[in-house]
Amino acid sequence: MLDVSEDVRAEIGDQEADRLLAGENAPGSYDCTSCRTPGDTGQERTSTVLFVGEETAVLAFAHATCIPSQVVQVAESELQGAVRSITGEEPGPVPAPAVGTAPGQAVLGVTSGLILIDGDLHPALVVEPTGPIARPGSLGEYGDDFLPLLIEQGFQPVHDVNKPPSQLQGWSVLLAMGQLHAVLQPSIAGTSPVAWWQAHQPLVVTEGWRAAVHKSRRVLVFAAPVGAIGQQPREDLLRDALEKAAASGLLVAAAMPLAGT
């Protein structure tokens, strides 16, 4: 009952893929790399998830109902964090906001929280750079292009936080071993998704956030330019900051599936 996608097969080779499907190298019981609960390859459909870095590749397993079989390309340093998580060597908690690097751009802060919309709690991520984001090649002479760049990628301006954003095709949020690892975007070449944002260490999220994301199967990702949100100690204050940013035309958002492609 093991799923091996064509992308995973291409990376590990036909021989290894066939041995997995025949049960020779299947783990039997495992901890789902997404929801952290036990799984059994003999009892339920299971996805193979291959994390690929510059020099290292790690094959993990997940409930097929959590995430599909896929290849996830990550930086080598990020993969080491995934290795520690997959092998049970948990890294210490990372204070929010976690900081990652967008390739060729600036440092991004990412904070997780629950947003109340129409009476339901939605898992959300709030992305805010630590400084202005210049358009590649512009050298920063035209100011902060963070929101225009995201709108070009398909993010939508938010005028009312009470209305959930539409889903952004091809983007997803990677949750491995119950911790936040990356926000993925489609690659230019149309192959496996690549990281738009990566945590330096896997970001610990609350049980409530994790429960909400596994219920909804999607994450609402809000983004604002530097200084628009700030570090808010409570979710009600985070919500107030989002509403003020939206009222000022400084907020964009998109809904993303959990580790989907």
Classify the beta-strand content into a percent band. Answer: 25-35%
Q: How helix-rich are the residues, as a percent range?
A: 10-25%
Write down the secondary-structure element order.
EHHEEEEEHEEEHEEEEHEHE
Strands ordered across the widest β-sheet: 7-8-9-14-15-10
Q: Estimate nothing, just give the exact number of structural domains.
A: 2
What does this structure look like?
Helices cover 22% and strands 34% of the residues. The protein has 261 residues and is of the alpha+beta class. The protein folds into 2 domains: 2-73, no CATH class; 98-185 and 196-257, no CATH class. The strands form 4 sheets. Strands 7-8-9-14-15-10 form a 6-stranded mixed sheet. Strands 1, 4, 5 and 6 form a 4-stranded mixed sheet that branches. A hairpin with a 2-residue loop joins β11 and β12 (179-185). α1 (6-12) packs across α2.
Concise synopsis of the structure shown:
The protein has 261 residues and is α+β, with helices and mostly antiparallel strands.
Task: For the structure shown, list the relevant keywords.
alpha+beta; 4-stranded mixed β-sheet
Tell me the layout of helices and strands.
Elements: E1 2-3, H1 6-12, H2 14-21, E2 29-31, E3 38-40, E4 46-52, E5 57-63, E6 70-73, H3 76-86, E7 98-101, E8 107-117, E9 120-129, H4 146-153, E10 156-157, E11 172-176, E12 179-185, E13 194-204, H5 207-216, E14 218-223, H6 235-247, E15 252-257
Parallel strand pairs: 1-4, 4-6, 9-14
Antiparallel strand pairs: 2-3, 4-5, 7-8, 8-9, 10-15, 11-12, 12-13, 14-15
Helix pairs in contact: 1-2
